[in-house]
Write a structure and sequence with these properties.
With 466 residues, the chain is an all-beta fold. Helices cover 0% and strands 47% of the residues.
């Protein structure tokens, strides 16, 4: 700027001028004096000795970058050169000049070996070009220069993008839906905000971006599958920059499965196979839905959902019906608009059943009578009904004969004889002392006979008075 004295730190040390070489005057040969002897021939001058080999220059520093900027200083960082020469590195020289000029001024008076340096006492608002050279015994390297000039101003708040949590992973929307993203950031003074998609500028016909002091809005009115991709957001203040990548995926319904066919029909079961759809809707499939329809009703019923494999077995079909099958593919956006339908009907036929009775030899249950429970002796009181019991087993069914004192009891209303499931009973109604004696139960069938006896005592219930 005119009228402003240069800062003492920016004054570049002017190298001392090299001394001019004195030119040797051309000697004019003098004519020999008369009578003088001719001069003797001089010996040839000795060849000059070879000097030591010159030291190799270092390569330029790499990855030069601005670490921090404020209203009166700028901090730089870089990495050491890949080649430092055989004599080693003596240090670095940092130079700067105002943008648009070529007056480079050394910022450091003495060489240093650190890969970090801060240029101080700068004027606020200046735009400076900065470069760094590596120095060794052989000389200075090619300078590493910043790509853009640095504006000397105070950065109160470094740029920082605060990506919302739901945008730190793939952001998924369906075709036709609105994409409206609000991404806050920080930085003071106000940073420069820019968007790009896969390294290319955004299409203004598809995407609308509105930048504010503290946030940026990314808006798509109707999402299309072509809007899928990685969007880069950059927030920049001079040389300080923060970047974030937003992965957006626009999905739609998948296409129908392909090559659906009946593999086998047996019993009440049908085996199906198909191929995945050509178009998965730009996202992974969540499975398949299988439906059946019988020929009589024509209605479709879901038999399997979220089938992960491209094959299945449908069971519990009704005998005599004919079935068609269809399969939908499914992703996060929903089922496919159409389904793959079998071209053939699956006929569930009634199996032919032939009854073949088993041959077995019949068992002969015939046996002679045998009493499993004999008669028991009893004592009763005159005038009270009493019963006699016994159990008999025989086949064919035996004939039961009751006897009293070896005399068969025939049709006498005083006696009631009953046989039920092998249990034989004889009821004696209002017995008297005359009815006492030995009673016999006799069982007779074609295979034999058996009998059991018991004694019955009938007591007089009256008491004798003296």
């Amino acid at each position: 700027m005119p009228g402003k004295e240069p800062d003492p730190e920016l004054i570049q040390a002017t190298p001392a001028a090299e001394p001019a070489e004195t030119r040797a005057a051309e000697a004019v040969p003098a004519s020999p004096a008369e009578g003088a002897l001719p001069p003797e021939p001089q010996a040839p001058a000795a060849a000059p000795e070879r000097g030591e080999p010159k030291a190799e220059l270092p390569s330029c520093p790499v990855h030069l970058a601005v670490e921090d900027v404020n209203d009166n200083s700028v901090s730089l960082t870089w990495k050491a050169p890949e080649q430092v020469g055989s004599t080693g590195l003596d240090g670095y020289l940092v130079e700067c000049c105002k943008d648009g000029t070529a007056d480079w001024v050394a910022a450091n008076k003495e060489l240093f070996l650190s890969t970090r340096y801060t240029i101080r006492n700068l004027a606020s608002g200046d735009r400076l070009q900065i470069r760094v050279k590596a120095v060794n015994a052989g000389g200075t390297s090619v300078p590493a220069v910043l790509e853009q000039p640095v504006v000397i101003r105070e950065i109160l708040e470094h740029p920082k993008i605060r990506v919302p949590r739901h945008l730190r992973q793939t952001y998924t929307r369906c075709v036709g839906e609105v994409v409206n993203l609000l991404i806050p950031f920080q930085g003071k003074p106000r940073p420069q905000v820019s968007w790009s998609k896969d390294g290319q500028p955004l299409d203004s016909k598809r995407v609308t971006v509105r930048n504010g002091d503290r946030d940026t809005i990314f808006f798509i009115r109707e999402a299309a599958r072509s809007d899928s991709g990685q969007y880069q957001l950059s927030v920049k203040i001079d040389r300080l920059e923060d970047r974030a990548t937003i992965d957006i995926r626009v999905i739609e319904q998948p296409g129908p499965p392909e090559n659906l066919k009946l593999v086998d029909v047996w019993g009440f079961n049908v085996a199906l196979e198909w191929s995945p759809p050509k178009d998965n809707g730009n996202t992974a499939l969540k499975g398949y839905t299988v439906q059946k329809s019988d020929r009589k009703s024509g209605q479709w019923f879901t038999v399997l959902e979220h089938c992960l494999r491209p094959s299945c077995t449908v069971s519990d079909l009704i005998i005599g019906n004919s079935y068609s099958f269809r399969v939908f593919s499914e992703n996060a956006c929903g089922h496919s608009a159409t389904a793959a339908v079998t071209t053939q009907l699956a006929h569930i036929r009634k199996p032919e059943i032939l009854y073949k009775p088993e041959k077995y030899s019949g068992r002969d249950f015939s046996e002679p009578p045998k009493f499993t429970q004999p008669l028991a002796d009893r004592s009763t009181t005159r005038g009270y009904n009493t019963q006699l019991f016994c159990c008999v087993r025989a086949f064919p069914k035996p004939k039961i004969i009751w006897l009293k004192n070896q005399t068969e009891i025939r049709e006498d209303p005083k006696y009631i004889a009953v046989i039920n499931e092998g249990v034989c009973s004889l009821e004696i109604r209002k017995p008297s002392p005359f009815d006492g004696g030995v009673y016999t139960c006799k069982a007779v069938n074609p295979l034999g006979e058996a009998s059991v006896d018991c004694r019955l005592d009938v007591k007089d219930g009256r008491c004798s008075l003296e």
